[in-house]
Amino acid sequence: MQPWWLAFPGRDEHEYKCLDAAGISYMQDEEAGSRGVLQLHISKIVDVDVDLILTFPDLYPFFRPAVRLNDPEGTFKHHLHPFSGDLCLIGRDTARWSTGDTAAWLLTEQLPKAVDLGTLTADAERAADLSDEDAQAEPFTEYYTCFADEAMLLVDGGWQLPADANSGELDVRLSSVAPDVEGGTLGAVFGVTAEDGRSIGVLEGVHPTRFPHKILGRWQRLSAPVRHDDPKSIWQHARNLRPELPEAPREPMTPGNAHGVTVQITGLVFPEERAQRQLGDGWMFLVRIRRPGPGTQPPKGKGGRRQPQTGPTTTTALVRAGYSGRSDLTGRMPELEGLSGRHVLVLGLGALGSTVAEHLARAGVGRLTLVDRDRVEPGNLVRHATQLRHVGWSKAKAVSDVARSAGLYCEVGYHELSLGGVRWDPAPHHIDERSQQDGIAEIVDEADIVIDCTAEKAVGQALAWICAKRATTLMIASATNGGWGGRVATFEAHKPTGCWSCLELHLHEGTIPAAPAAPEEVGVQPVGCGEPTFTGTGFDLAEVALHTVRTSVGLLQNDVADGYPEQNAPVHLLALRDAAAAAIPPCWTAHPLPVHTACTGQHSSG
Ligand SMILES: [Zn+2]
Prior knowledge:
The protein is an alpha/beta fold. The chain folds into three domains: 4-134, Ubiquitin Conjugating Enzyme (Roll); 141-293 and 311-328, no CATH class; 333-591, Rossmann fold (3-Layer(aba) Sandwich), CATH 3.40.50.720. 22% of the residues lie in helices and 26% in strands. It is built from 13 helices and 22 strands. The chain has an eight-stranded mixed sheet with strand order 17-16-15-18-19-20-21-22, sandwiched between helices. Strands 6-8-7-10-12-13-14 form a seven-stranded mixed beta barrel. Strand 19 (473-479) and strand 20 (485-491) form a beta hairpin. 35% of the residues are buried. The mean pLDDT is 88.
C-alpha cells in the first residue's frame, strides 16, 4: 500500500504550508521516515520553545496525528499519558477530528486548551469551563501496559471504603487454581476488612460455588497511583509504604499445599478518575507466586558432591480489577435493574430456548430454571447458544452452564426431563416418584413467568392448563418451518384475554393469521437422530428468541417504575418472508386475543 502522502497527493505539502504559516518550527525525523512514517520534532510554536514529537498515523487524514511531550515530567494532571508522554488534544472521540483539520490546527488551537485544562490546580478546576474536554474519566490504570494477560480479579465498583481505613485483609476466591497468573486467573474479592477487622466491603449476590478456592489477601491504600509500569517496581513501592507486607508469599495455592506453591495477593487502592474530574477508589492487584526449587540433586557417582540446590523462585504479576458489582453491570441498562429478583422457568432448550435462557441471564434475571431431556449434538451448534465443548452434555446442563457464564448474578437450576412421561424423574440413578403434575406445579409456583420453547403442542396445552390453575403467566414461543417466521403468545394471569384454546380456534378460523412457513416437505432428519427436525437458520430463529426475551422482560417489570416497557398485545407474529417467499426485514405484528365464542375454557374477567 502507498503511504498516505502518496495516496492523497499534495496533502503533505499542505500540512507543511500550514505549519509554516502558523509560525511552527519543525524538523522531520529521518529514522522514522526510513520506516515510512512521517514524524516531526516541533521545537517552537510562534515564540514559545517546546519539545514535542508529532507523528502522523498510517491512516492519515482519517485519524488525527499523535502529539507527545519529549519530557513528560511536569505539571500535567490530565490529558497526558504518564508513561509515554502522549498528549490527549481533542478527546478520544474520533468524531472531534475531521479530515480537513491539520497538524498546525492541532498545535495552535487544541494544544493550548490541553495545556490549560491539563495543568489546572484543584482549586482552579472547580471554576474552570471544561466544555473543551470529553465528559469522561481518564482512569490512571488505563495507562499501565504491564498487566498480566487474561487475568482479572473482580471487585464491586460500588464499594466506598471509609476514609479512615488504609489497609486490611481481603477474602479472595479464585475460580480455579492456574499454574500461572497469565492465561486464566479469574477470581473475585468477596470481602474487604479494615485494620481493626471491620467489614467494609462485601460482594453481594455472587454464588460462592463460582469461585471455590479461598485465599487470604491483603490490601493497601495509596495516596496516588504508582508511576511505574512494571510489577516489581510497583511491589517495591507498596512494600516501602507498608513494610509489614510479607516478602515471601505464604498462602498455600491449593488446599493441603501439595506442590508447595504459595501465593500472595495484594490489592492496591488509590484515587483515580471515575467520571470527568471525579475521583473514586481504583483497584489493582499484585499476585506473587512462589514455587519451590527442584530440591537437592543426588550426588553424581561415588564421592561426588551434591549439586547446589536451586532456591525457590517468586514471580510478580500485576492483575487488573474487574468492576462487577450489580450497579457496575446494570449501569448500561438501567431499565433492567428490577430483574435481579425475578425467576423464569424455560422449557425446551433448542435453538429458541437456549438463546432465550442466555439472554435472560445476560439481562440480569436473578434465577432461571431450565427443563429439557435432549443431548447437545454437533449439529445443534449451528443454531444453539452452546459451544463445541458442550457436545455430549445434556441440553439442560449445557444451557445452564451458558447462562451461568453469561450472568454473574444468575442462579441457574435445571431438570433433565421432558413432560409427557410417567413420574417426575424416572432416571435410574435418581428415581423421583412424584407425579409430573406435582413436579411441574412445584417449579411453576416458584417462577414469575413460564416460557415454553418446546414447539410441542401437547406441552403448550398442558402448561396452559397448569399455569391457568396456578395463576402464573405463560409465554409460548415457536418458529415456523424453514425459519420463515414465528409466533410469541402470552397468556397473562388475571387478564381478560383469550386462552390457549381460544388462540387455536382463532388460528383455525384465520381471525389471527398464521406466520409464514416453508412448504411442509422441507424438513430434515439428521443422521443418528430419532426424530426429524425443522429447518431454519440460527439467525432467523434468534429473531423469535430475542423477541420472546424482550416481551418477557417487559412483563417481569410491569410493576417497576422506569422498568423496560411492557408490550400491550398478547399475540406477536413474525414474518421473515413475504407472500412470494422473498426475504424481508423482520416484520413483527401485534394481535389482540379476544375470548372465542366457541371456547369452553375458563377465562378471567380481569
Ligand atoms: Zn378460551
